[in-house]
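Side project, low priority. Logging it here so it doesn't get lost.
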Amino acid sequence: MRLIFAGTPEFARVALAQLHAAGHEIALVLTQPDRPAGRGLKLQASAVKQFALAHGIPVAQPRSLRLDGKFPEEAAQARVTIEAAQADAMVVAAYGLILPQWVLDSFAYGCLNIHASLLPRWRGAAPIHRAIEAGDTETGVTVMQMDAGLDTGDMLLVEMLPIAADDSTASLHDKLADLGGRMMVDALKLAQSGGLHSAKQPSEGVCYAHKIEKREAAIDWSHPAPTIERRIRAFNPFPGAATAFRGDAIKLWRAEIDGFSRRENKATGTILSINDAGISVQCGTGVLRLIELQRAGGKRMTAAEFLHGFALSVGDVLDAAPADAGV
């Protein structure tokens, strides 16, 4: 099938690679404009753009597709480019721009989206993070026929994936990206044979995965240990859960519930024990053992390695870190 692919981050690159490997003709790639990244804030092409250029696929990077929006000239040029591609369908995965109606109406097979949740649960920008943070035991991928709403289109294919007890957003992202790419290849094959059927999303169970904000990184030790443990996994790799000690920010990358007894006379955030297994911290309910940490300017380390260069003692109290803590 002749396709236009619209996507930006690594999640989308995986799908693009699978469609390319399956023999689909990628006539055009749409992706977000290059953004400053890294310590030097140099402009960096998206993962999707890098793949496209490496495989000789034309790329367009409009800042908007809305003809009545802030960048009408770019949108108008994009429309010319999209129409000239004469594609059968547009495949969308984590693109980052809202598709106006003229785009949705431009293809015989419409616009097909890969969404990393079991819709209608976790519509929106951060479905992987929010599923882990909420303590969901399963998630999945929905291939959806896009409409003008926010992840409200009819479902074409749905596949469930369990969330492991130690899954972080990083690990779950990789599983879902691979699943989503494979499902889209299957969906296009079914579409070509007339075997792809749609179903309305259920009206019950709708919830929204709001965008992750840096301010959410700061850990509140008065929360229950399981809540904090999930947040640490949900915010790995971005924005990274954070605490602080005497003004020094510490990122927390991995932790586990500790069987150590909570001490009622100790303030939340108090370090209760330190050993080779990790650093045990009192929470509002229960105790959390910190296993992998990182200080400002450093790298991720096991607790034992971290303590060689950062002095912590039993009885010390960890605080919330500022949301913009540079680690």
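Brief comment: The chain is about 25% helix and 30% strand.
Revisit when time allows.
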